[in-house]
Amino acid sequence: MTDDADDHGSFDERPSKSERKRRSDDLQALGEALIELSDSELDALPLPEQLRDAVLLARKITAHGGLYRQKQYIGKLMRKIDAEPIRAALEARRDRERVEAIRFHRVEQWRDRLLREGPEGVAAFRTEFPQIDSTAVGKLTERARKEQQTSKEKVTPAGRELFRLLRDALSRAP
Fold first, then answer.
1. Gene3D superfamilies attached here (predicted)?
2. Are 44 and 89 in contact (CB under 8 A)?
């Protein structure tokens, strides 16, 4: 006779102990991520008052053992609530940070290209972003290139100003 207990539903459908442990660890890590959020980000999340208080207390604890126990407590509280809205909010935050990092690198790349190529870089910039005032970009690029030649610093005041101009212009660009 074969073991058909699964087909007849006589075995328990509960998750294994390992699966429960993985879920618990995941929820605790999610709870620990709440500790790192700013006050405004924490306030924006749909947290029960007890969990919010536990997170705020964890921020104040400096003793390693006490912080460990508080994190365990936060994990326990996390297991009692629906964590999906919190997970979604933290994922949205990570996505915004990724987009911001990509935007920052794009601005840096354009600034470096403009400083390296000069008028040719400005022409390429004008081609890619015709709606942006390339005259101001060109003047600032030349000023930054001149400062760069006479200064020992890698980034000069005009270079920082060029970065700000590009950041503002590219944030408005489609």
1. PSPTO4464-like domains (1.10.60.30)
2. yes
Nearest to 22 by CA among 89, 75, 99: 75
For the full predicted model, state whether its pTM sits above 0.70: no
Rounded Cα distance between 45 and 38, Å, is 11
pLDDT by residue, tens only, the chain of 174 residues = 455 445 555 456 788 888 888 888 888 888 888 998 888 888 888 889 999 999 999 999 989 999 999 999 999 999 898 889 888 888 988 898 999 999 999 999 999 999 999 999 999 999 988 888 888 899 999 999 998 888 878 778 999 999 999 998 888 766
Instruction: Enumerate domains of the chain plus CATH numbers.
Output: 16-81 (1.10.60), 94-172 (1.10.60.30)
Q: Which of 55, 33, 47, 50 is nearest to 82 (CA)?
A: 47
